[in-house]
Design brief:
Layout: H1 4-12, H2 16-38, H3 41-57, H4 68-103, H5 106-124, H6 128-138, H7 144-151, H8 155-172, H9 179-189
Length: about 190
C-alpha cells in the first residue's frame, strides 16, 4: 500500500498508474460528497470525473500538498460551488424569458394592475416602520445599509422589517390568484 505523499509525488511525475490508485482510493468519498448536494446520480459522476481531471491537470502542485484529503475536499467544494452557481444562473436566465413572455400576455397586464392595487392596500395597513423600510427599499431603491443609516436602526432590524413586510403582503393576498404576475412581484423583492 502506497502512502498518499508517495502517490502524489509519482502523480506529479506523470505516473498514470499512481493516479489510478489515488482515484480508486478517493473516488467513492468524493462521489458521496457531490451526490449529497447535486442529488442526480449521472451529474454527480460527471462532476467527480471533472474534479479528478482538474487534479490531474494540476498534478505538478501535488508534492506541495500536506493533507490530501483536506486538499481534495477544498477542490471538491470549490467545484461544487461554481457548478451550482452556474446552474442557478442558467435557470434564472431561462426562467426570466419564460416569465417575461407570460407577463406580456394581455390578461396578465390586467392582473398586474389589479395586483398593484391590492399591494398598495396591503402597504397602507403595515406598521409604520415596515411601510417605511419597504418603501425605501422598493421605491427609493436604497440598500439595507442606507435604510439603516437613514432610519437610525441596525441592518438586522431592516432585514426583519423587510421580511415582515413581504410576509404581510403574502398573507394579505392569500387566496387571490395572481399567478405568474405575483411570482414576478416577489422575485423583484427578494
Amino acid at each position: 500500500m502506497h502512502t498518499d505523499r508517495a502517490l502524489l509525488a509519482k502523480i506529479a511525475a506523470g505516473d498514470e498508474h499512481a493516479f489510478t490508485l489515488l482515484l480508486d482510493e478517493y473516488r467513492g468519498r468524493v462521489f458521496s460528497h457531490v451526490l449529497t448536494y447535486v442529488k442526480v446520480y449521472d451529474e454527480a459522476i460527471e462532476m467527480v470525473q471533472d474534479i479528478f481531471i482538474k487534479i490531474w491537470m494540476q498534478r505538478e502542485r501535488l508534492p506541495e500538498v500536506q493533507d490530501f484529503p483536506a486538499y481534495l475536499f477544498i477542490i471538491s467544494r470549490n467545484y461544487l460551488v461554481s457548478a451550482i452557481r452556474k446552474r442557478v444562473a442558467d435557470r434564472v436566465s431561462l426562467q426570466d424569458e419564460d416569465i417575461l413572455l407570460e407577463v406580456a400576455r394581455p390578461d396578465n397586464t390586467l392582473e398586474a394592475k389589479e395586483l398593484e392595487k391590492h399591494i398598495a392596500a396591503a402597504i397602507a395597513q403595515m406598521s409604520p416602520k415596515q411601510r417605511m423600510v419597504f418603501t425605501l427599499s422598493r421605491n427609493a431603491r436604497l440598500s439595507q445599509e442606507e435604510i439603516a443609516a437613514q432610519m437610525k436602526i441596525s441592518k438586522n432590524t431592516v432585514k426583519f422589517h423587510m421580511a415582515a413586510a413581504l410576509n404581510f403582503i403574502r398573507v394579505f393576498l392569500k387566496g387571490a390568484d395572481y399567478g405568474v404576475v405575483f411570482l414576478l412581484f416577489l422575485l423583484r423583492f427578494l
